[in-house]
Fold this sequence. Notes:
This protein is 11% helix and 45% strand. It has one helix at residues 31-46; strands spanning 17-18, 24-25, 49-51, 53-54, 57-58, 60-66, 73-81, 88-94, 100-107, 112-118, 126-133, 136-143.
Amino acid sequence: YRQICSQASTCGSPTHHTAGDGISCPGDSFAPLFDELRQRVADTIASCMVSGTSAGGSLTTDLTVFPNPVSNWVTIQGSIEADLPDNQVDWELLDLFGRPVQTGTWPVSGGRINQRIELGHLAAEVYILKIGSGSLFASFWIAKD
Length: 145
């Protein structure tokens, strides 16, 4: 947002000035609007969850993924109910093109998950976390700062 106007840094007023062509420029006054927009998008992403079912069974989750957006580590906690082989679930972190970025398997103990994924090395973008077994899974949006 600071690149909206190239004149802002040379102008006597960083929040409002007139460019050489006489057009009024708001300069840094946009900053609070972009910060608010970013927070609203992050809040929306944090509240999104889609769970999947199939004719062969069902998956019920009450999982929390936090913090979201995330800088380094994301935590996944809560309950998961399904017919799980070996009391474990597979997880997959996908980019927005559906390409796997990270994968793994977690133990499920007493129907609960308490795990962390390190994301500090990934680019800042939105990822999809899929947790489940076979065709039964829950998906979560994760915003990486």
